[in-house]
Design goal:
binds magnesium ion; binds aspartic acid; binds adenosine-5'-diphosphate; globular; eight-stranded mixed sheet; four-stranded antiparallel sheet; VC0802-like; single chain
Length: 413
């Protein structure tokens, strides 16, 4: 069972969580619980780091930001004990959750689960702070923002859990963020692949890495709400959204949906280089240095050459990487031979995702037409097998998501 930040925000909320955990145990399950820091706490800790040292050392950043989960794990264990349950906390370095040494975005390598399993078998509830791990040289690491989801899936895989229940502040995965579109519909099932795409294009309900790990380790994941009454049906009756494999879904769905979900991402920035020479190798001189600096490029457009054999190249990077991208490309101006660099971070990427796209034509056309009818201009397009994304003006994000939700016939009654 994993509980996110809103579910853990304060002692009163933690008491509700303890009640849900106790009920699962009373139903005969052995449970391990992974918790997030209280809502807002990690942001607060990140700000302290920035104030202390703008160019902070990621290893010390991890020492600071991992603290939020230490507090909530201890508090949940105390609350469970107050209810008469046996419970103890297992910090990341105690289990340990071994990771690589990529501080602030570490990857889990192994979890030693022997002690954990023995304690669970003895009837003790294990409470594990999410987000934190231990580097090969014995230092605290964190897994990147939203990383408690990944901790939970990794623990579930390590103890070979029957299921990994991700409790959050919405009661499942919706066709789009229910806080933006009131007509969003809850999905009973979503495939690993679709969830992976949705997470990677901006549905923050699950961290992308947690979905990739669940797919690889075949962990059954359910997303459900912790904001429930004491008489709510138990989690075993599947009141949330189950993440399933393609094969499982085929056996479940009456009629398959063309589009599963829509996501928006305001985390990207657009860069245009004008009048780049239209010759072999020109594009390599742009993206080579970016790759060497570990900057990920997402969408790319190269126009056909106009007169004089010159063309404009447009691409997107994350907003966090924009300043570095600008500095790098200014330094390479001679070598690349462009005329001007134009940057715009007031953009949003809107993506529609669905396995139905594999077998149906016209999904992208519907998207372009619906946006055009509302006067929304498309600045860039990219596609994959089960996803189509467009880049638009940031101010039109909510409108675009709503318009597309209607255009694909996904609105709830
Ligand atoms: P937690 O603190 O529990 O990890 P998050 O804030 O990380 O919770 O994720 C839950 C939020 O994800 C919801 O409040 C919702 O606004 C947002 N969200 C975005 N896209 C979706 C979606 N397709 N379905 C459900 N929630 C979504
Ligand atoms: N507390 C961490 C964060 O806010 C991890 C998590 O909640 O998943 O990013
Ligand atoms: Mg989260």
């Amino acid at each position: 069972m994993k509980f996110g930040g809103t579910s853990m925000a304060g002692t009163e909320r933690i008491r509700r969580v303890a009640g849900i955990v106790r009920r699962q145990q009373a139903a005969g399950h052995e449970v391990a619980v992974v918790v997030s820091a209280m809502a807002g706490e990690t942001d607060r800790l990140v700000n302290f780091c920035r104030e202390a040292n703008a160019l902070y050392d990621p290893a010390e950043y991890d020492v600071v930001v991992a603290a939020g989960e230490q507090i909530t794990s201890g508090l949940l264990a105390l609350t469970l004990q107050a209810m008469g349950c046996k419970a103890r906390s297992w910090l990341g370095w105690q289990l340990p959750v071994r990771t690589d040494d990529a501080h602030a975005k570490a990857r889990i390598e192994t979890i030693d689960s022997d002690g954990l399993i023995a304690s669970m078998k003895s009837g003790e509830i294990a409470v594990i702070p999410g987000f934190q791990g231990l580097s090969p040289d014995g230092r605290v690491t964190t897994l990147g923002r939203g990383g408690s989801d990944t901790s939970a899936v990794a623990v579930a895989a390590a103890v070979q859990a029957d299921r990994c229940d991700i409790y959050t502040d919405v009661d499942g995965v919706y066709t789009t963020d229910p806080r933006i579109v009131a007509k969003a519909r809850k999905l009973k099932y979503v495939t690993y692949e679709e969830m992976l795409e949705l997470a990677s294009v901006g549905s923050k309900v699950l961290q992308t890495r947690s979905v990739g790990l669940a797919m690889k380790e075949r962990v059954r994941v359910q997303v459900l709400s912790s904001f429930i009454d004491d008489d709510a049906p138990p989690a075993d009756d599947l009141p949330g959204t189950m993440i399933v494999s393609d094969e499982e879904l085929e056996g479940l769905e009456m009629e398959s949906q063309l589009i599963t979900g829509i996501a928006a991402d305001k985390n990207e920035a657009k860069v245009t280089l004008t009048r780049v020479a239209d010759r072999p190798g020109a594009v390599a001189t742009i993206f080579g240095p970016l790759a060497a600096a570990n900057i990920n490029v997402d969408m790319i457009i190269q126009n056909v050459a106009k007169d004089k054999g010159e063309t404009d190249v447009t691409f997107t990077v994350t907003r966090a990487d924009l300043a570095r991208t600008q500095a790098l490309l200014e330094g390479q101006k001679e070598a690349i031979g462009y005329f001007r660099m134009i940057c715009d971070s007031k953009v949003a990427k809107i993506s529609v995702v669905g396995v139905g796209m594999r077998s149906h034509a016209g999904v992208a056309a519907t998207m372009f037409r619906a946006l055009a009818e509302r006067g929304i201009n498309i600045q860039a397009i990219s596609t994959s097998e089960i996803k189509t994304s467009v880049l638009i003006d940031e101010d039109e994000t909510e409108l675009a998501v709503r318009v597309l939700h209607t255009a694909y016939g996904m609105d709830a009654e």
